[in-house]
Structure formats: structure tokens, C-alpha cells
Specification:
Length: 312
């Protein structure tokens, strides 16, 4: 009798445990437990419709939190983001995406100028800064030859450029900008000087969609962007005007690539190739983060993280 009673108690305990776990699983499925609350202070500039700008910023953050089903609310002028339980990599990527404003710029490269040749002749580069002479096929099969400067040390290259005299500075409508190029044997990442037009032909506000895709030749993840209708028209007109010239793509002020425009590009689509020799997972995560930030649109106002709370 005692053994039978003990057996029934074990069975009842097992049933109770199973029901409890089932109820808990159902509750977590219906009402996911939150793991992190992020509270952002919104920096609203003076002289604008603050209520409208705050609402636009709130909507932009909601789009950025959608991929992980984050809950975004407004509390006393601050934006509160409640994130569900996420893997560590997803959590880090989401935190970066929420407040990041990707600055995308398309600008023309000035390879016709002899500015860099004059700079090199007047102020020979120091050790560690190399002179590179490159060429490409331009309009009508004409060979375009240009000079650039590269270095494995960004700081050394910046110091050289900062030390130039005023008469060797670019024209007011031009700018020397650093980007990443490829070193010997295609394995060493170098910092390279690009002579660019200051005018931004298209930017982040012209992008209406972005997604990650795998390049059929390299097998690497790239980011495809789609411009708005107005942006697509400007992109086609731009590429038609500069066939045979280079067009630089900048992210957050750094040149990521500068392909030669071979023909007018219609359809309002472009590709962003991520530079650097990184492991496939890192490249994929970076591509996904960039695409998500561009796809969510520009943050109308700057966000500052005020505090974060772990939630159970």
C-alpha cells in the first residue's frame, strides 16, 4: 500500500511539473519575457516642430526594432525600447542598429586633377606612405591614369595630409577622403586617398529599401539598395553623365568602394560591397546590420542612451 501511494505521488508530481512547464512555455510564447529595456533621450534641435519630429523618430525606431519584435513606446519625451530574449550576437546587433544613423553618400571621384602629383612632388611622402600609380579604361576606351597614396597606418597617412601647406590643399569644391584599398597579393588592407567632389549626388535619404544578397561570383554578402523614384531618376542621370569615370560610395565618411561606371544604370538599384578580409560570419552580420539600418530609414533626431535595465 505504501509503495503504491508513493508511486501515485511520483506520478502526480510528474504530471504537475509537466503542466507547469507547459503553462510557462505557453505564457512565454504568448507574452515573451523581456530581457532588456533601453531608454533613449531624444535630442531635438531648436526651431523645429518638436512634436512632429519626436513622432517621426519614434516611428523610425519602431521600424528598427521590428526584426526582433521589440516593443517601442514613448515615455515623458524619451523613447523606451523593450527587447525580448535574444542571443548575444543578435542583442549587440540590435543595440547598434537602434540608434545608428548610417551616412551613405555617392560622390564623384576626380581622377583628372593633378593635385596629388603636385603634392607628392612638393612634399615627398615619409616612410610608410607609398605612391601608387593606377589606371582604368574610361569612356571610349581611353586609359585614365591617376596617382594615389596608400599606407597600412591610417594615422601616418592622416598626419602627412594634415601637414600639407595651404597651397597644396584641394579646391573648395573638392576633398581628400580616406578609404580602404587592397595591399600586395590582395591580402593586406591599406588606407587609400581619394580625391572627391564635395557634392553628395545621392545619400541615405534617397534609399527606400535595402537587403543582403550573395554575390554570384565572389560568394560574399553584399548589400543591395533601392532608391526612391526621384533618387532613381537622379542616379540614372548621374551615371549617364559620368560613364567612364569612378563613382565613390562612402559609409560614415569612409570610401568603401569606387567602381568605374561602365554604362548608365537604370532601375534605381545599386550595390554596396563591404571591404576587408573578415570571416564569413562577421561579414554576414555586418551586411545584415547595414541593410537593416538603411532599410529602416534615417533617424530624424539623434538618440542618446540614457539608461538600460535588465528585465525578467
Amino acid at each position: 500500500m505504501k509503495k503504491r501511494r508513493a508511486l501515485w505521488l511520483v506520478v502526480l508530481a510528474a504530471v504537475f511539473l509537466a503542466l507547469s512547464l507547459g503553462a510557462l512555455s505557453a505564457r512565454l510564447w504568448l507574452f515573451p519575457a523581456l530581457s532588456l529595456r533601453l531608454v533613449y533621450r531624444v535630442k531635438l534641435p531648436a526651431g523645429v516642430d518638436r512634436a512632429a519630429l519626436l513622432e517621426q523618430t519614434l516611428e523610425a525606431v519602431r521600424r528598427r526594432a521590428e526584426p526582433v519584435r521589440g516593443r517601442v513606446t514613448l515615455s515623458g519625451g524619451s523613447i523606451v525600447v523593450d527587447l525580448p530574449r535574444l542571443a548575444p550576437d543578435d542583442l549587440r546587433a540590435t543595440r547598434r542598429r537602434l540608434a545608428r544613423n548610417v551616412k551613405l553618400e555617392l560622390r564623384r571621384v576626380d581622377d583628372r586633377s593633378d593635385l596629388l602629383r603636385r603634392i607628392i612632388a612638393a612634399a615627398p611622402p615619409p616612410e610608410g606612405v607609398e605612391v601608387k600609380r593606377n589606371d582604368y579604361v574610361g569612356r571610349g576606351g581611353r586609359i585614365v591614369r591617376y596617382v594615389t597614396l596608400t599606407s597600412a597606418s591610417r594615422r601616418r597617412l592622416e598626419a602627412y595630409l594634415d601637414g600639407l601647406s595651404f597651397r597644396h590643399r584641394p579646391a573648395p569644391d573638392r576633398q581628400l577622403v580616406l578609404g580602404e584599398g587592397w595591399g600586395p597579393h590582395g591580402r593586406v588592407t591599406q588606407h587609400e586617398v581619394f580625391h572627391l567632389h564635395r557634392r553628395v549626388e545621392l545619400g541615405s535619404r534617397d534609399v527606400v529599401a535595402a537587403e543582403v544578397f550573395t554575390d554570384g561570383i565572389t560568394g560574399q554578402p553584399d548589400v543591395g539598395i533601392t532608391f526612391s523614384k526621384a533618387g532613381a531618376r537622379r542616379f540614372e542621370a548621374l551615371t549617364r553623365a559620368i560613364v567612364g569615370q569612378r563613382l565613390a560610395i562612402l559609409l560614415d565618411g569612409k570610401v568603401t568602394s569606387a567602381p568605374v561606371v561602365q554604362e548608365p544604370i537604370t532601375g534605381g538599384k545599386a550595390r554596396i560591397t563591404l571591404g576587408g578580409f573578415k570571416d564569413p560570419l562577421t561579414r554576414k552580420l555586418e551586411a545584415e546590420e547595414l541593410a537593416a539600418a538603411l532599410d529602416a530609414g534615417v533617424l530624424p533626431a539623434e538618440l542618446e542612451l540614457a539608461r538600460e535595465e535588465a528585465l525578467r
